[in-house]
């Protein structure tokens, strides 16, 4: 297998082989993360700029840590401190970053399509760390990586994604990754947040929690972004929880070996019972750990390296 | 001014049902039946063998951005783009800075047009003050100042009560009311058509229903008051159905379609190219087909471009933040020839009718005819010439076109306004 991709913009255009290359590379990096010295010199001398134009905690920390584990120099721009606040365009900001001789740029932006736009402007690799409601490819990759760790092959597996699908880039990236991997994806939640149009992406759409969760191997919960939706998409948080919140009774509908996932940040007592979030089926914190390995793989491969090099070095 | 003798053209004049090869004669800015031998000897001659001579095209929906947004377009540059596209009469929307909601601004536009324009530039005025949808603009003084219609284009009047009073009042002056039909409560933050493509791209969608509801509102209000409402840039298939039924019921409603809504769909947005972002948005194949069917059976009355220039630096940014709108004047004719004539088998005369006589009739403009005595506004084009459109080399001040770099078939060779050749441009 050979990695030829320069930018990581979306899972939609990726092949299954590419997804597996990232997973295999991440598995090798994960071994390194368990060593006492958790650092490799793979990207020594390279400068990675994290351009986070929308608030983020987990993803930003994971990219930051991943770059450091690869011995790259990292500079992080926050929305608040960047000159976009002073009216500079994204093109100008990005060109300035390139002019500072950055080797790679990681972008988080509230506007869908911005990473693709940057990739058309810049010569350096662009990694999408989440663009609006479009995609969050490294999240989809780390989620499917985590699923494979627990369930082995995802072919024929049943995955339920529950919550605010309409505004979720995490859902979209997972739908693309999982359908390529042969899983059956069911999207479930209120009809206003899970429109029928998602069937065109190869997922099933359901508003019946019981049938959607029945025998599922994975349930992935998404945060209810009530602040974004106002009060038009569902009446109240309380009603959401009573209709779609994951509690013990509802979790019993799942396959007994099923895992519970959440990309974070979680709202305890809203989309998930506190007990379940901390329970033995929850892999929420493993997702965070795997997030570092996946981002190391993404940075490493898009910098022009091949999977074999790191895989062999850790075998 | 010398007489003009256009020789051996295929003369297509829908207004006089003429479609035959022959000559056109112009004297003193008007179409005449013939020229005397002496006049012919001195006349300026255009050899139009293989070319079509049609009435100058009429566009009842353009944005020339003057006053106040002259970094995007001016009446001078916009009218050059119009002339290059074969248009001899254009109607400007009033969403300038400040909005054209008073007689003074109309006078400013008319003065600029008289001074700078190569083609006939006619103003519209606002329906409401500042296009805020609240208080009526001084519609009577706007009429006296010379507007040919009123509209809050881009900012659809949301209040049914305000719209009802506006059309009732404008009816007294025989002023048509042009409406950009959009229920804004349903399109908050929307940047493209709502549907499968918006879901895939993660962009907020603007549903057909938001257009359909306001088109229905307009049908009901027009029917109630007897006032004429013209529906701008229909993009939704159901809106076509609603208009069709209203016309069958005798309601005074007319409607336009843009070249982009008959040629393109939201499938074109897959790369987030902001030159495909406009309002109303590109919709689905079913919508596109319904609009073409509406043009075919007369439900939709005319083609209008919604020529909406924006600078490169305004368009060159995140899709969510780029302004709505694309150029239209320089590409409209070849796009209409491609979609309606070649792909959908409209007769050439029928397609040209949609760009000449019919739009003129909607606003009662003295244009769109080659009948003897009519103003000699003429568009001469080669229906077969293939050329590659370079928006940067075009005549608009802006270059925001989805057809940039595309091969087009059909090219304007000359444009005549009141008997003067305004395109190709005279050397200056």
Give an account of the 3D structure.
The complex is a heterodimer of chains A (315) and B (428). Chain A is α/β, with parallel strands linked by helices and 315 residues long. Chain A is built from 13 helices and nine strands. Chain A has two domains: 16-136 and 288-313, Aspartate/ornithine carbamoyltransferase (Rossmann fold, 3-Layer(aba) Sandwich); 138-287, Aspartate/ornithine carbamoyltransferase (Rossmann fold), CATH 3.40.50. A five-stranded parallel β-sheet of chain A has the order 7-6-5-8-9. In chain A, helix 4 links the parallel strand 3 (104-109) and strand 4. The mean pLDDT of chain A is 94. Chain B is α/β, with parallel strands linked by helices. Chain B has two domains: 4-52 and 375-397 and 409-422, Roll (Urease, subunit C, domain 1); 53-362, Metal-dependent hydrolases (TIM Barrel, Alpha-Beta Barrel), CATH 3.20.20. Chain B contains 14 helices and 18 strands. In chain B, strands 1, 2, 3, 4, 5, 16, 17 and 18 form an eight-stranded mixed β-sheet that branches. In chain B, strands 9-10-13-14-15 form a five-stranded parallel β-sheet. In chain B, a hairpin with a 2-residue loop joins strand 2 and strand 3 (30-32). Chain B is globular, with a radius of gyration of 21 Å. Chain A binds chain B through residues 12, 89-91, 109-114, 116-117, 131-135, 166, 169, 172, 195, 197-198, 200-201, and chain B through 195-196, 198-204, 271-272, 313, 316-321.
């Amino acid at each position: 297998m050979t990695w030829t991709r320069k930018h990581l913009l979306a899972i939609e255009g990726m092949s299954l082989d590419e997804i597996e290359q990232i997973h295999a590379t991440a598995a090798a990096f994960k071994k390194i993360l368990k060593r006492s010295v958790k650092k490799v010199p793979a990207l020594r001398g390279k400068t990675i700029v994290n351009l986070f134009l929308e608030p983020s905690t987990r993803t930003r920390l994971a990219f930051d840590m991943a770059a450091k584990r690869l011995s790259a120099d990292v500079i992080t721009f926050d929305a608040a401190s960047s000159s976009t606040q002073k009216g500079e365009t994204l093109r100008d900001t990005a060109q300035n970053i390139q002019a500072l001789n950055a080797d790679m740029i990681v972008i988080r932006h509230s506007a869908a399509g911005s990473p693709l736009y940057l990739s058309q402007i810049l010569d350096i690799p662009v990694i999408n760390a989440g663009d609006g409601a479009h995609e969050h490819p490294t999240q989809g990759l780390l989620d499917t990586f985590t699923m494979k760790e627990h369930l082995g092959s995802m072919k024929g597996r049943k995955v339920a994604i529950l919550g605010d699908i309409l505004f979720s880039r995490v859902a979209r990236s997972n739908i693309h990754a999982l359908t390529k991997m042969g899983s059956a994806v069911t999207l479930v939640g209120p009809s206003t947040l899970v429109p029928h149009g998602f069937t065109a992406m190869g997922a099933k759409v359901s508003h019946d929690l019981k049938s959607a969760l029945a025998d599922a191997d994975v349930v992935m919960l998404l945060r209810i972004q009530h602040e974004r939706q106002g009060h038009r998409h569902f009446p109240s948080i309380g009603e959401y929880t009573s209709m779609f919140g994951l509690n013990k009774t509802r979790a019993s509908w799942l396959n007994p070996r099923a895992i519970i996932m959440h990309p974070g940040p979680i709202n305890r007592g809203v989309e998930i019972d506190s007990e379940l979030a901390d329970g033995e089926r929850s892999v929420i914190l493993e997702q965070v750990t795997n997030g570092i390995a996946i981002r190391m793989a993404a940075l490493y491969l898009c910098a022009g390296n091949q999977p074999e090099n790191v895989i062999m070095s850790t075998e | 001014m010398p007489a003009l003798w256009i020789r051996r053209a295929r003369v297509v004049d829908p207004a006089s049902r003429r479609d035959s090869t022959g000559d056109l004669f112009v004297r003193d800015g008007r179409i005449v039946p013939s020229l005397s031998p002496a006049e012919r000897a001195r006349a300026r001659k255009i050899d139009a063998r293989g070319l079509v001579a049609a009435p100058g095209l009429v566009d009842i929906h353009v944005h020339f951005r003057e006053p106040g947004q002259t970094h995007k377009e001016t009446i001078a540059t916009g009218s050059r783009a119009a002339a290059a596209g074969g248009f001899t009469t254009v109607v400007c929307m009033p969403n300038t800075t400040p909005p054209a909601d008073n007689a003074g601004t109309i006078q400013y536009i008319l003065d600029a047009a008289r001074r700078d324009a190569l083609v006939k530039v006619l103003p519209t005025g606002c329906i409401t003050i500042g296009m805020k949808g609240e208080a009526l603009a001084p519609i009577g003084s706007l009429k006296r100042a010379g507007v040919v219609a009123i509209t809050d284009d881009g900012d659809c009047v949301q209040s049914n009560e305000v719209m009802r009073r506006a059309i009732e009042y404008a009816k007294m002056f025989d002023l048509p009311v042009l409406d950009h039909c959009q229920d804004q409560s349903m399109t908050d933050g929307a940047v493209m058509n709502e549907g499968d493509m918006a879901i895939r791209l993660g962009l907020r969608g603007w549903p057909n229903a938001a257009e359909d509801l306001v088109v229905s509102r307009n049908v009901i209000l027009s029917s109630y008051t007897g006032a004429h409402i013209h529906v701008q840039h229909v993009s939704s298939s159901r809106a076509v159905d609603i208009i069709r039924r209203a016309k069958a019921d005798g309601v005074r409603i007319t409607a336009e379609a843009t070249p982009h809504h008959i040629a393109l769909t939201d499938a074109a947005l897959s790369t987030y190219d902001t030159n495909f972002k406009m309002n109303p948005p590109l919709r689905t194949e079913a919508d596109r087909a319904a609009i073409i069917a509406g043009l075919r059976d007369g439900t939709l009355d005319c083609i209008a471009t919604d020529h909406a220039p924006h600078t490169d630096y305004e368009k060159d940014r995140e899709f969510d933040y780029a302004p709505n709108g694309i150029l239209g004047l320089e590409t409209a004719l070849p796009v209409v020839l491609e979609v309606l004539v070649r792909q959908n088998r409209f007769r050439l005369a029928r397609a040209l009718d949609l760009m000449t006589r019919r739009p003129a009739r909607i606003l009662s403009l003295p244009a769109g005819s080659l009948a003897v005595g009519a103003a000699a506004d003429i568009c001469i084009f080669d229906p077969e010439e293939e050329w590659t459109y370079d928006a940067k080399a075009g005549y608009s001040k802006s270059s925001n076109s989805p057809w940039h770099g595309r091969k087009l078939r059909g090219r304007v060779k000359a444009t005549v306004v009141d008997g003067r050749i305004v395109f190709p441009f005279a050397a200056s």
